[in-house]
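Per reviewer request, we include the raw input and output of the structure prediction for the construct analysed in the revised manuscript.
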Amino acid sequence: MYNSSYRPTSYYRPAYNMTRTAKPRTPGDLFPVATVWAAACAAHRINGRYIKQDEFNYRDHVEDNPVLTATASRTIMTELLANPDRLTAQDFEQGAECQNFLQNDITFRALKNKLTEFDSATSKVLAVEENFDSAQHKYELAVIASLPASRMRALERQATDSRVRQSTGEYVGAVGDKVALDVEVIKTNYSQQWNTWYATAITSDNRAVFFAFREQLTIGNSILINGTVKAHRTGTTQLNRVKIV
């Protein structure tokens, strides 16, 4: 009789051992937290803004070699970390202020449930308490180079919000009215969705208005505008079809 339990020995396969030994992590260079924040602020001081990648002049180049016009902020930060003696006392002071400001800002907006994806990245940077490891914290070191600029934007946002809160809260005209206003521009931002600029301004009688415009307006400038009242929104008047006189 045929034995169904029989298996040829050639079919035997031993159990595979899935146990693997973890490779030891190679430690990188260690940089004190205070030094890294100082270097990030120094890079912002040198560039005057955050520069993600090296910028080149491709028009006035010689022999097809573009001219480097601005160095990436992270590159400058890395050079300063390798030469910390170039950092000033003011850089360390600004670094500490930047770190504390962003920590408080994130905590405040977390309570209001207004955190963004970038805030999550910032939180990872703020979680490093003693030393940044160049091997373990590559992502955090890339993010921190942009944080001084993030702080400046947050300060500008707070200043704008404060200025709007200090306005009378009264509306301009009635919906549909055509108005002529003398305003000071206090904020501008570009909308990729609508492919236009938006400006927030304060009128000469301290009322807040905002409107779309085809080009960016200079913050701090006083201009005379004509427009049509489109809506009244929480103490601010929205204008439409705005023109500079």
